[in-house]
């Protein structure tokens, strides 16, 4: 049972998604007030909601094709991004993988969801889209060990992380600016619980991530080929600062692709989901 948010008459509604039966609103599964999926994660409500959904009748569900998905939530405490985490991608940029994770923080104003437009800012003549695996923190952690790190991850999601690459190339100290234009972080539509990931794949290292543009340009790699594993990234960043429920760590891209107005960018992760966004001029 996966988590998502849909739009109904202009209102964002948290839902659970059963791949077989469809979508059921969280409000139909509990008497508690649950304003967003972030509440589900912060207040550890998932197990009770999933049990209620499993016992719900077929009339409680709607076909997923009949609803409009949007960003899972809008106000995480933090979004961490990781650069140059696949050796192959670093080689493409004629750079070496750094001795420690090359990380940066993005503001929540960058968040968009499935089918929302990625706007190319007028300050950039070369913006790239980057498909990535996102980790959604489920339990607060600080100085967690690598061995225990994934126990603090609720689940994973598809991400499109954008970069104004020409700005970054002018000076590596411009990383924050190049990463923080509006619309430069799309995630969702679904958050897949870690238990499902491990049941499906056996190991998170078997997950395959692709950046796709216009259905034909594609850069693909598997998580096992990351220089810094998801567990390492959680442990490393929890030593920098506390990680809170709903925080997202975007783990790096197998390849960035230059996008222009009129293109369609996609993050494709088989078994996890597809995130698709059109590209426009801001």
TrEMBL record:
Domain Fumarylacetoacetase-like C-terminal: 78-280
Keywords of the record: Metal-binding
Domain of life: Bacteria
Cleaved signal peptide residues: none
Matching Pfam families: FAA_hydrolase (PF01557)
Alphabetical list of InterPro entries matching this protein: FAH, Fumarylacetoacetase-like_C, Fumarylacetoacetase_C_sf
Similarity comment: Belongs to the FAH family.
Protein name: Fumarylacetoacetase-like C-terminal domain-containing protein
Organism of origin: Nocardioides flavus
């Amino acid at each position: 049972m996966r988590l998502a948010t849909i739009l109904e008459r202009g209102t964002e509604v948290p839902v659970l998604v059963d791949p077989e039966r469809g979508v059921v609103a969280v409000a139909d599964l509990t008497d508690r007030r649950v304003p967003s999926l972030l509440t589900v994660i912060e207040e550890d409500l998932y197990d009770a909601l999933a049990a209620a959904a499993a016992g719900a009748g077929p009339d409680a569900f709607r076909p997923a094709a009949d609803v409009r998905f949007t960003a899972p939530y809008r106000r995480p405490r933090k979004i961490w991004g990781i650069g140059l985490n696949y050796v192959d991608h670093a080689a493409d940029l004629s750079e070496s993988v750094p001795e420690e994770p090359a990380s940066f923080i993005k503001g929540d104003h960058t968040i968009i969801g499935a089918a929302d437009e990625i706007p190319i800012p007028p300050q950039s003549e070369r913006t790239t889209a980057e498909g990535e695996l996102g980790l959604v923190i489920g339990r607060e952690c600080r100085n967690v060990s690598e061995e225990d790190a994934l126990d603090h991850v609720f689940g994973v999601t598809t991400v499109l992380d954008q970069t104004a690459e020409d700005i970054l190339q002018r000076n590596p100290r411009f990383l924050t600016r190049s990463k923080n234009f509006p619309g430069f972080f799309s995630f969702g539509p679904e958050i897949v619980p870690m238990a499902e990931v491990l049941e499906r794949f056996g190991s998170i290292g078997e997950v395959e991530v692709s950046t796709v543009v216009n259905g034909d340009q594609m850069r693909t790699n598997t998580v096992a080929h990351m220089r810094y594993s998801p567990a390492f990234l959680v442990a490393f960043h929890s030593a920098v600062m506390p990680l809170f429920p709903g925080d997202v760590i975007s783990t790096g891209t197998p390849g960035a692709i230059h996008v222009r107005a009129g293109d369609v960018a996609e993050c494709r992760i088989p078994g996890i989901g597809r995130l698709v966004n059109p590209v426009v001029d801001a």
